[in-house]
Amino acid sequence: MMRSPNWSSKILKEETVTSTNDRLAELCQEKEIKEFTTLMAEYQTAGKGQRGNSWESEYGKNLTFSTVFYPQTIAPASQFILSMAVASAICTALAHYVHADCLQIKWPNDIYWKDKKIAGILIENDLTGSQISQSIIGIGININQEEFHSSAPNPVSLRQITQKETDRMEVLNSVLAHIIDLYSRIENRETDIITKIQEYYLKAQYRKEGYHPYCDAKGEFTAKLIRVEPDGHLILKDKNGSLRKYAFKEVKYLL
């Protein structure tokens, strides 16, 4: 059963930060911060995304937040399960507002509505020896923004999709509840939970059917998505039948 904690005591709000990941990391260094503490900001001056990209978000219109976790059972070699779980949880939460079949996960951890990006995830793990000592999970979700002005090629918001305003705190509480539910089941070593998350993640993959254009260090090519391995590697098959294996930042989807 999904946990329903009192989130009000765990959500910290700030008006403006450089990035919620950086600010929450600072707080964790300054004092003891309880697990699941979430920092939400109305605006980020240097919001971060994958590949060093910036994250555009109009003041007070969207969700930009980070949550801290202290995993006890997730080994560094298995840390990609966190990305899978968080992406799956966001899709599940957003399916309350838009049709679930339109929500997909673009490897490694962007959330797409059709061919447009509605959410992004940035996970920063601190390792101590053979253990993840701290994981700060940053999430940006486009909620009520009506226009985007950055160079990002394909953003979209719930407002643009549904043509109505959405309660940001309602979305935040739902996303957090789904994330913590999956995370707790992983930490409790629930039977088959990792397999279930991996299956959901693969089933929800963006462009999982057919051949599509990509680009790597050698240039552009066309390939079919075969699978995402438990450690996060993307496996593609090109039109010559050759399998190609990629780690983060080694291949780019051409949109």
From TrEMBL:
Its EC number is 6.3.4.15. Keywords: Ligase. SUPFAM superfamilies: Class II aaRS and biotin synthetases (SSF55681). The keyword RNA-binding does not apply. One of its GO terms (molecular function) is biotin--[biotin carboxyl-carrier protein] ligase activity. The keyword Ligase applies. PANTHER family: BIOTIN PROTEIN LIGASE, BIOTIN--PROTEIN LIGASE. This is Biotin--[acetyl-CoA-carboxylase] ligase.
